[in-house]
Amino acid sequence: MNKRQTLLLTILFAAALPAFGQAVPPPPSVQGPSSPPAAQSVPWSSLSPQQQQLLEKFGVNWNALAPERQQALARGSQRWLGMTPEQRGLAQQRFQRWHSLPPDQRRALRERWEKFQSLPPKEQSAVRQGFRRFQQLPPDRRRMLREQWRSASPAQRQHMVQQAREHRMQRMQPHPPPRR
Fold first, then answer.
1. Rounded to whole angstroms, how far apart are CA atoms 75 and 69?
2. Close Cβ partners of 130 (under 8 Å, ≥ 6 residues apart)
3. R_g (Cα) of the chain, nearest Å
4. Could you count the other beta carbons within 10 Å of the beta carbon of residue 60?
5. What does the pLDDT look like over 145-162, one tens digit per residue?
6. Domain ranges for the chain
């Protein structure tokens, strides 16, 4: 496989990572009383002709892949085919940035992602809203906040998080009508 094919195959796999945890387990009668859910193979014939063509470009030996990998590539190829050329370009850029990170940073990011995924939906939504608000700040303000965070001790960071929670709770409280 050439470098471009390897890159695209890896991007397809990365695009499917969020879907790994969404595999449908087989019925309990198939699993047995105490066995963990087994991943189901994805028949090659269940893929669309476009997915098959995309995966064939990489010389994928479908039947030799583990069921988890088949599921990931099936989902990833479907996502890839649904992207616009601009979205594909952005996905390639994200992958290249990811690939250029040192292994310890990638591990830390994976752990943060898993921690985020374990949050209840309401908390995930709050994190996303906070991120969107942060992104809307002027670049100088974002830079200053990042620097404050980086230079803070763990205790100071905890205090900053607590203050942000309190501030968010105050904003959520209904305001009493003004007194006359």
1. 10
2. 164
3. 22
4. 20
5. 999 999 999 999 899 888
6. 1-23+38-118, 121-168
Token couple for 82: 């649904």
The predicted-structure confidence for 81-115, as pLDDT tens digits, reads as follows: 999 999 999 999 998 999 899 999 999 999 999 99
Tokens of 106: 């990638």
Return the residue matching tokens 């921690």: 115
Residue type, 152: A
Distance between start and end Cα atoms, the chain: 77
Q: Is pTM beyond 0.85 here? A: no
DSSP string, 12-28: HHHHHGGGGGGPPPPPH
Residue in the block written with tokens 């203050």 = 163
Say how far apart CA 23 and CA 146 lie, in whole Å: 37
